[in-house]
Amino acid sequence: MRLKEREEDGVTIFALSGAIDLHYVPTLRSLFQSKLNERCLALIVDLSAVDFIDSTGLATLIEYHRDAGGHGGIFCLAGINPILKAIFDVVQFDKVLAIFSTVAEAKAAINSGRVRPYLADEPAAN
């Protein structure tokens, strides 16, 4: 697993590649925790180069989404390739997280206010 971080128009983007699995999740959780500590207002995770995700990876994405909402942070996913789409369809991830085809679409949705922070008493997907 590799991660490249960049900032565009006030939005942090994590571009991941490889597998998000039991071996990488502690590192990813640590990176997410640093974003929580910084009170990151908007984070997009680009999964276009991710070829596998296991249940620990799925749980880590959901945990960050929930925790970021506590300080008004927005979280969404972009670049879901066909391998991940099959997994996300089975677990109905689109009902929990905002998912976009590209980082550009995700940024546009964030900047236009179409993606809101997760609130515990509201449905998560926007």
Secondary structure topology:
Elements: E1 2-8, E2 11-20, H1 25-37, E3 42-53, H2 55-69, E4 74-78, H3 82-91, E5 98-100, H4 103-111
Parallel strand pairs: 2-3, 3-4, 4-5
Antiparallel strand pairs: 1-2
Characteristic terms for this protein:
126 residues, alpha/beta, Transcription Regulator spoIIAA, 4 helices, 29% strand
Beta-sheet strand percentage?
25-35%
Distance between the termini: 28 Å
Largest sheet entry: 5 strands, mixed
Instruction: Please tell me the total number of domains.
Output: 1
In DSSP terms (H or I, runs of 4 or more residues), the helix count works out at: 4
Q: If you consult CATH, what is the topology?
A: Transcription Regulator spoIIAA
CATH C-level name? Alpha Beta
Q: Going by CATH, what is the homologous superfamily?
A: STAS domain
Number of strands: 5
The CATH architecture assignment turns out to be: 2-Layer Sandwich
Which secondary-structure class do the elements indicate?
alpha/beta
SSE series: EEHEHEHEH
Unreliable spans are none
Radius of gyration over C-alpha positions, nearest whole angstrom: 13 Å
The amount of helix comes to 25-40%
Q: Largest sheet, order of strands side by side?
A: 1-2-3-4-5
Average predicted local confidence, pLDDT: 93
| Overall 3D form | globular
